Amino acid sequence: MKKLKLEELNRATVAEFKAMDKFPVAVVLDNVRSMSNIGSIFRTCDAFAVEQLCLCGITACPPHREIEKTALGATQSVNWKYFENTLQAVDALKQEGYTIVAIEQAQNSTMLNNFTPLKGAKYALIFGNEVNGVDDEVMKTVDVCIEIPQFGTKHSFNVTVSAGIVLWEFCRSVGDRP
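The structure assignment produced for this chain is given below.
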């Protein structure tokens, strides 16, 4: 087995990425405080070719050196918007036809392995603050709450790990690339 070199990866240019079809997913960051986490999620959104990333509340916005350290340029490719609060983002996404999905441990949540996204449907996935999770007022507005099954003692993933797990599962479940 031989690792591929960068030039063998056939990566899209930023212009090609912006023009390509995207997965009908918006990622919403609800007051995520760590710029390293924000940058990592930018990169994950690029990897899965999501439609947009919504940065809400205290979530920092590019350009910022701390975001770029983990984003590695994905702030240039991923379509992003800033909202003063997450409820504004949810309202805008509902108007665009997105099903609003909180990723949270909550009463009556659906385990990720038991949720099948509908092909062609648009989903807005809300990932919450590293300490407090998805805001309680935002939880009142969601259509679905998905929980990632966990088996250890902590019952807590880093927000970037949660984003990677959920986006992979959505892409895998829907099937073909956008």
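Interim note for the steering committee: Residues 47 and 123 are 17 Å apart (CA to CA). The mean pLDDT is 96.
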